[in-house]
Amino acid sequence: MKIRQSTRSNPLSLSPTLYSNAGMTHALGSPYWRDLFDIVIVQAMKPSFYSNSDRPFRLLNPRSMSQTWRPVSSLERGQIYIQGNVGDFISMTGLPGARVLYFGDHVFSDLADPIMQLGWKTGAIIPELEVYA
C-alpha cells in the first residue's frame, strides 16, 4: 500500500501514543504503519490544537515513550511528534489550507474547526452508515 505517491500524509491524533499505535497497526495491518506517513502527530489535544499557539511540538522517542522538552523547529519525516498547534504545523510544512484534506469522525472537534478556521477540505468517517452499505 503506497499512501504517499505525490502527496504528503500526516496522521494527527488526539489519542495517546500507545492507543494510536495499536489502532493504526490494526487498521493498516502492519506494525510498520509509520513508514507510510511523512509526519506522525499524537496527543494533539484537539480542539485546542487549532486555537492554542502556546503548545509547541515536541519529539517523541518511540522506544522509551519519552518526549523531549525542547520544542522542535522543524517537522521531519519518520519522526513522531507530540502535541503542537496548527499554526506551527502550517508554517513547518508549508501546506496552505486549500491543499489539506483532513478526515475525522467527530463533527465538532474534527471537522468544524478545520473547515471554518483554516479552509481545509474535510472528510467525515461515519461508522453508523455501515449498516446501509
TrEMBL record:
MF terms in GO: 5'-nucleotidase activity; metal ion binding
Keyword terms: Hydrolase, Magnesium, Metal-binding
Domain of life where this protein originates: Eukaryota
InterPro entries on file: HAD-like_sf, HAD-SF_hydro_IG_5-nucl, HAD_sf
Entry keyword Metal-binding: yes
Similarity section: Belongs to the 5'(3')-deoxyribonucleotidase family.
Name of protein: 5'-nucleotidase domain-containing protein 3
